[in-house]
Design goal:
This protein is mainly alpha-helical. It has 13 helices and 2 strands; from the N terminus they run H-H-H-H-H-H-H-E-E-H-H-H-H-H-H. Helix 1 packs parallel to helix 3 (about 40-50), helix 3 runs parallel beside helix 6 (about 80-90) and helix 7 runs antiparallel to helix 8 (about 120-130).
Length: about 210
């Protein structure tokens, strides 16, 4: 894409920010979400969330799946995927499929001297979004506890925050979250398993052994 074409598309998106949510706006944003340029799609996705255009939820999900394919080339820095997940969360999207795929995504991109994972922010955002999904507690907490063993500490922090946000628990705030974290990742984080098990028992939720015995 030429710089001139890119600039024109960016100008169009910026103009939509102040436009009313008309059928024309929806159509233009839907078209923008199909663009191959991940930066443009990230801007379009953010606008969809800001304007509350829930009718474009299927387009957001389709774009997310598209940018998982050959992700290093199609979505460097995870710009599109990050924006899509944040937009879906802002729209109140509570179907877990996108977030579950994002939880498992690692994206090793070339950097000076080797490769670096650029998907840590995505996994953290998916953890926080998953906390609001319509999943049973055991399934939800199993996914979140698994993230407490993530190699990136910001992801572990977001996983702990998500566990605190799970509906039905008395949040212990930052002290509760810190109790589930360590400076280094551990295998499924023994401290995290114990903390979550205590919370489940406190709420009278069955199935604690199934969570802690994995």
């Amino acid at each position: 894409m030429s710089k001139q074409a890119f600039d024109k598309k960016m100008e169009t998106l910026e103009a939509l920010r102040a436009a009313p949510a008309t059928p024309s706006t929806v159509e233009q944003l839907g078209k923008a979400l199909k663009d191959r340029n991940n930066f443009l799609v990230s801007k379009a996705a953010a606008l969809v969330g800001e304007l509350g255009l829930q009718e474009l939820t299927p387009d957001l999900r389709a774009a997310f799946d598209r940018f998982l394919v050959d992700a290093v080339k199609s979505d460097p820095q995870c710009w599109a995927k990050n924006a899509i997940v944040k937009s879906l969360k802002n729209l109140g999207h509570d179907e877990p499929q996108v977030y579950l795929r994002g939880l498992k995504h690692f994206q090793l991109e070339p950097v000076w001297g080797g490769r670096a994972d650029t998907a840590a922010a995505l996994r953290g955002a998916c953890a926080l979004a998953l906390a609001g999904c319509a999943l049973d507690r055991i399934t939800l907490l199993t996914h979140l506890v698994d993230l407490l063993a993530d190699p990136e500490k910001p992801v572990r922090v977001d996983a702990a925050r998500a566990i605190d946000q799970v509906s039905g628990f008395e949040s212990g705030g930052s002290r509760s979250s810190q109790g589930m974290l360590s400076d280094e990742p551990r295998s499924r984080s023994e401290a995290g398993d114990c903390a979550v098990a205590r919370r489940l028992k406190a709420t009278g939720c069955d199935g604690v052994p199934a969570l802690t015995a994995r």
